[in-house]
Amino acid sequence: MHVRAPAILVAARQHGETAVVARFLTRDFGLVAGYVAGGRGRRLRPLVIPGNLLDLQLAARSDSQLPFAKIELVESRGPWLAEPLPAAAIAWVCALTAATLPERQPYAPVHDALEATLSAICHAPSARGWAGALAGYEILLLRELGYGGAGARPTGDLAQIVAVMDTVEAAIDHYLLADRRADVMSARRRLRALLGRMA
């Protein structure tokens, strides 16, 4: 296996003292995992942040082996992690993506929507500018994985968008995260609480 592609890092877990096992969403290859040697080191730690856009190279001798990953930063989400609301939104969409998509199956619409949602979170002046994109991403993910997800990106004021998110929550919890509710849904509950204060 040899892959080089633009990728969005959606999850990273410490492995040993300095390495990281990371999961990346690519447009053409879907969700792929890779071993990042030195991922917790001073040079690579700023790159191994969920939401970062990366240039990814994966290499493995066989399909059963976890590939080694080499990464280069394209765009960092680090500056937004100091802000509670954008940080919660980035954590949620990345955790949701990593927990629900099957490995190595391309979902080009999901990749494109995630990239656009992350861009909106980081560049809109406030949550009112990106909350609709985030809710639309949840709906698209449900639809792409075969669980309905009727409708498109919600519009209206923040209170209306939060109401749509509340409607979709049961489907996400029941269909997408049935075996991972506790840890992944806690990220959504935190985001929902922050958005609720604004609405």
Q: Care to give the gist of this entry?
A:
This protein has 199 residues and is α+β, with helices and mostly antiparallel strands.
Protein architecture, described:
It contains five helices and five strands, in the order E-E-E-E-E-H-H-H-H-H. The protein is of the alpha+beta class and 199 residues long. It has two domains: 2-75, Nucleic acid-binding proteins (OB fold (Dihydrolipoamide Acetyltransferase, E2P)), CATH 2.40.50.140; 79-198, de novo design (two linked rop proteins). The longest helix has 19 residues, at 158-176. The model has no long low-confidence stretch (mean pLDDT 92).
Whole-number mean pLDDT: 92
Any guess at the CATH architecture of the largest domain? Up-down Bundle
CA-CA gap between termini: 47 Å
CATH class type of the largest domain: Mainly Alpha
For the sheet with most strands, the description reads: 5 strands, antiparallel
What percentage of amino acids are in beta strands?
Answer: 15-25%
CATH T-level topology of the largest domain: de novo design (two linked rop proteins)
- Count up the helices: 5
**What structural class do you assign from the helix and strand content?**
alpha+beta
Q: Report the order of strands and helices.
A: EEEEEHHHHH
Helix proportion = 40-55%
Tell me, briefly, the overall form: globular
The Rg value, from CA coordinates, equals: 17 Å
Number of strands: 5
User: Main sheet: which strands, in order across?
Assistant: 3-2-1-4-5
Question: How many separate domains make up the residues?
Answer: 2
Low-confidence stretches: none
